[in-house]
Amino acid sequence: MYHKLKVAELSESYLTDEDIWHVLTVVLSNKSAKSATYKYALIKAMIENLYQVNNQYELTYDQLAYSFAKIYWNLIIHHGLVKQNSSHKQARIVTELLAFQEKHGVPQDFSFDKLKSTLQLKLVSKVKSVMKINVFGALYGDTQEVFYEFNHQTEYFRFQSQVHEFMMKYQRLIVNLTNYHMAKMIEDLNEYPSTSYLLGKVESIAKRSSLKPYEQVLLNYFEATCFYCGKSLSKGKRESHVDHFIPWSFVQSDQIWNLVMACGRCNAQKNDKLPERDYLDAIISRNDQLQEMIADQDYDPSLRNYHDQKIIMLYDYSIKNGFDDIWVPK
Predict the structure, then answer these.
(1) I want to staple 205 with a disulfide (CB 3.0 to 4.6 A). Which of 18, 74, 79, 90 is the partner?
(2) Do residues 274 and 246 make contact, with C-beta atoms less than 8 angstroms apart?
């Protein structure tokens, strides 16, 4: 059985978009067995880390497990949606998270990002064990052995290159499809009356509730000025904000190389829009400085695999995904 696999290799060297759509459609349809929500969560974790791969399209298990842990902590603990599979037994991810919450005395109203970093790391380690047993092999089988390969011993995960490009190209659509089907399954399992309510929960579980830690880092290394209009953020009562340069609704994660300081006016006006392309050169220059300033990249792991081409690709793919309402400060 696929879920018992400890090592798996890609069985195809080239795929067209049509090939990939066919496989993904089957995964999301009733033709694919769905005994748990794990497959949806792994797809969401893969998308959240699309721009964290190295030059060989590889991710670490820890990167995926961090996203996976965040998804399930916020669903199970924070929102109380404890039924995540269709069997009479409690899903292992639920058992692990509830035991972890009780052991460490974490209040239910604590979202994942409110946990201390030491607790997050411990939780990620436990979640990674669950993924090795129940998750990596299952989705590998459902995607017909052509989406990725993995090795539990080396904790190595690698996208098929065309699949990685496909996911970037159709990211917004894949996210929306995955969120809907995951919300629908959670609704059925928990006998909840509103798919739209649950869809809101599923859509928001990846987002941090606070970007304050990033604000402190950015202010430590750069002047307190708005990235967009250049006005000072320290004079008078001008409020400062941390803004996702590429909108969060597209990138679905918080990476310091995609975050800038903005004044309240620019942040409100920009909202969910893409800034004009001239600002792309500005953030590339800013990120080059940031990499030099933060020599210890373990301080912020998102900088390890960052290079200028990543944010250029992110910008271009966001336009292809419908973020074509370009914004400039007024």
Answers:
(1) 74
(2) yes
